[in-house]
Amino acid sequence: MARRTPDTPRGFLLVQVDALSWQTLLFAMRRRRLRFLTRLFKGRHQRHGFDVTPLRPGVPATTPKVQAELLYGARQRFPGFRFLNRASGETTYFGNLFEVARIERNQFAGRFGILENSGASYFNIFDGGADRATFSSAGVGAGSLFPTKDGRLARVAYRCKLALWALITMPRVIYRTTAEAARETYDILRDFKNHELHRGSFSYVIRSLANVLASELTLAAVGHELREGTRHLFVNFIGYDKAAHLRGPRHAYALWSLSLVDRDLKRLHRLARRARRCSYDFYIMSDHGMAPSRPIAEHAGRPFEELLEEALADQSPPAPALRLRATGNLAHLYLGAGESPLLDGEVAQLVPLLKETLAESRYVAWWVSRSPYNGLFYHRGAAVAHVLRDSPPPAGLDAPLLADLFALLDLPDSGDLVLFAAREEGLVWNFLDEYGCHGGNEPEEQDAFVIHPRRAFGQRLGLTPLDLFQHFRDTYHN
């Protein structure tokens, strides 16, 4: 533990483990995959005082939504990870880095971010006002891997440090990359033995980038930030998320990736405790969980959008073009090319067979549509409930979910219908070709958490991303 004076400034190191649910974390602990996190709640680490509080990400359960609320306090801005921009007719996809840069520039310019005033961000979607944002989606989309406000990259000394780091780290990167290739080969052979070769494509490159290069870059850069005394740090580890999407949240590949994150957390915690220029509070969070899923296209032989078009092919007059934009087990269905969302009655008039088709589909559990009376229609099979904003939630919905649905339908770029996939034998049907999904309201998807200094949130039984924004703003910026 570094010696600090009473004048040492206070800061935070917030680490996000992308897509990790609390139950999966406990499962990995029981499997003895997470030695550091296990010790964090036991033995000598307990004197540092860590508690855990549930975090509800809300719907859609996606990183862009959570980070917009956490970093900027901007509530419910995005219908999903993919959605249709009605004005342009183009698909907005948060995997498109240029689109992310445009969104941050247009929606968050001038807003307070919790990483302002001596802050740095690594591998996040948004920058949060950070002085340095390395490999952020918005920064890369804007044309720079290392967007900075202080011009550090222009300094010869800093470039020399980067070169020295690359030279020192290269042997470890080569070793870890070779180890990832060996484990990928082992996973392929095991999946072949278990007749599960369909479960995700080969991922040598993804494993190397997410588990090795991103990890080494983050540890080296954040270590430098801690030594320099940067006060507000936010780090996102993406390796588990990539593995869980590809093969499933509790597949051996996902658990291995999680064990590597655990090692990196240990190193970051040690560096934060040894920092002398700033006294750091250490936080670990997940932005959402992930549910085990099965692709609809694998089971049905074609995507869900094509199944709908086939079912409606005999309708007279012909149904308008259907456009489905999916985020895991949540999907926005757009009818026609109108710039304004359709009301429930307009949907029924335009496509009379659509509700019956959705009600009979084994892949759809329920869906919502807009009401002309400032409310929504909640459809589950053939049953329909009309819910007004001041009405109590109907059976099947709770108050937080109902508030999320109203906020979702208030967004002009949300679909005319918002579909939520069904679940069979423990697996959620996925509108995308993935074996782990998030976006909807399954228990695993809403099972996020925050590990934090004891009593940081008092006696709160649960948190939201907006609660975190207020905490970091009020605690570290006053």
Describe the model.
This protein is of the alpha/beta class and 478 residues long. It has 2 domains: 10-290 and 443-476, Alkaline Phosphatase, subunit A; 294-437, no CATH class. The chain contains 15 helices and 19 strands. It has helices at 22-30, 35-40, 63-72, 97-108, 137-141, 156-193, 204-228, 239-247, 252-274, 296-300, 304-311, 344-350, 354-360, 399-410, 465-476; strands at 10-17, 50-55, 82-85, 90-93, 119-122, 132-134, 232-237, 279-285, 291-295, 322-327, 330-335, 364-370, 375-380, 383-388, 417-421, 423-424, 427-430, 436-437, 448-453. The strands form 4 sheets. It has a 7-stranded mixed sheet. Helix 3 packs parallel to helix 15 (465-476), helix 6 packs antiparallel against helix 7 (204-228) and helix 7 packs parallel to helix 9. The mean pLDDT is 88.
SSE blueprint:
Blueprint: E1 10-17, H1 22-30, H2 35-40, E2 50-55, H3 63-72, E3 82-85, E4 90-93, H4 97-108, E5 119-122, E6 132-134, H5 137-141, H6 156-193, H7 204-228, E7 232-237, H8 239-247, H9 252-274, E8 279-285, E9 291-295, H10 296-300, H11 304-311, E10 322-327, E11 330-335, H12 344-350, H13 354-360, E12 364-370, E13 375-380, E14 383-388, H14 399-410, E15 417-421, E16 423-424, E17 427-430, E18 436-437, E19 448-453, H15 465-476
Parallel strand pairs: 1-7, 1-8, 5-6, 5-7, 9-17
Antiparallel strand pairs: 2-19, 3-4, 8-19, 9-18, 10-11, 11-15, 12-13, 12-15, 13-14, 16-17
